[in-house]
Amino acid sequence: MIDILIKELVSDICKKYKISGIEAEKIIHEEVKKYNKIISKWGKEKDPKKIYRTSAYKDFVKKIKKKIYYSLRTYQKEGATPQLSHISTKERAEYLKEFLFQINDVLKLVDVVFDVGGGMFLTSFPFDDYKNIKKYIWLDKDHSSYKKILDFVRENNLQNVELFNEKIGQRDWHNYLPSYKEKFDVVLMMKLVPVINRQERHLLVNLARIPAEYILITGNKESMVKRSSIQKKEEQIITSFIAMSGKSIIKKIDIKNEFGYLIK
Ligand SMILES: C[S@@+](CC[C@H](N)C(=O)[O-])C[C@H]1O[C@@H](n2cnc3c(N)ncnc32)[C@H](O)[C@@H]1O
User: Fold this and answer.
1) 27, 44, 73: which is the final residue of a domain?
2) 112 and 26 in one domain?
3) Is the model's pLDDT at 116 over the cut of 80?
4) Mean pLDDT of the chain
5) Choosing a second label site near 39 at 20 to 30 A (CA), which of 71, 85, 118, 195?
6) Do 29 and 113 have their domain in common?
7) CA of 88 to the centre of ligand 1 (A)
8) CA angle, 171 then 168 then 113, to 5°
């Protein structure tokens, strides 16, 4: 009976969440260990429907879903290459060429790039194709991304990269600018605005005031955790952010699992 319960639960979870059967099964088996007494009771039951109705089973499922939710929500995955260690960069990896192609016109022109909430994107950026970029400034509050990025920058001798491991708003935007510049040529806010809207909404006004010629703002089409579309919700957040910035949309960006706007 237990094997049947686990099999059905794995299939239910894989339909809803972005997790493989193997990973889901591993989490379930860990949780099962804590339910030894009840599990032996379930083992004797012939009708699974009777088990599904019990509060113990409902509690068991709730705990597993919570575990899966939190394991999927973490941006960082240990043991992966830098490019694949951050969920946002990993999801884009397959479509990176297409993504860059759509913003190539702007990237080819610029001197100074400011990657706000940059995560691990820098590790997949083809610096050799953009020799025009004199400075690539990275800002992110996450310390574990910072350590990996720092190693990557040193290993690849990327002299034009400058890193700031701090929170948005810690200093005035002009402090990140090279002295010869009054505004950034392009600011990357990739998959950032919806996160800030959710976690630190008060920062949006500051973010919208960033001095920039162009801003690239993107959002996710699919939830990081569930197999459901979140594009409409993220579009609304991004559209009102663009209105707040006072800039105009000059191009729409669209790849399989990410959408965005280039504004000026
Ligand atoms: C969804 S990830 C996107 C990463 C990257 N831009 C990409 O698209 O590949 C959001 C990033 O924003 C960073 N972040 C969130 N809030 C921040 C804040 N207040 N200050 C600085 N970084 C922040 C997180 O640490 C995370 O790396």
Assistant:
1) 73
2) no
3) yes
4) 92
5) 71
6) no
7) 9
8) 90
Q: How would residue 85 be classed by pLDDT, with cut points 50, 70 and 90?
A: confident
Q: How far is the CA of 221 from the centre of ligand 1 (A)?
A: 17
Digit-coded pLDDT (tens) for 39-49: 778 878 888 88
Residue having the nearest C-alpha atom to atom 27 of ligand 1: 119
**What pLDDT does 79 receive?**
67
**Closest alpha carbon to 205 in 171, 180, 168, 230:** 168
Q: SS3 for 110-153, per residue?
A: CCEEEEECCCCHHHHCCHHHCCCCCEEEEECCCHHHHHHHHHHH
Q: 245 with 213: CB under 8 angstroms? A: no
User: Which residue's CA lies nearest to atom 1 of ligand 1?
Assistant: 191
Q: Which atom of ligand 1 is nearest to the CA of 142?
A: 25
Both 220 and 89 in a single domain? Answer: yes
Tokens of 62: 């709730």
Rounded to an integer, what distance in angstroms lies between the CA atom of residue 43 and that of residue 131?
Answer: 65
From 192, 201, 205, mutation site for ligand 1 pocket: most ligand atoms within 8 A of C-beta: 192
Identify whether residues 60 and 116 lie together within a single domain.
Answer: no
- Evaluated on CA atoms 101, 102, 107, 108, the torsion sign reads positive
Do 171 and 58 belong together in one domain?
Answer: no
When pLDDT is cut at 50, 70 and 90, the band that residue 147 belongs to is very high
Return d(Cα 177, Cα 140) in angstroms, integer: 16
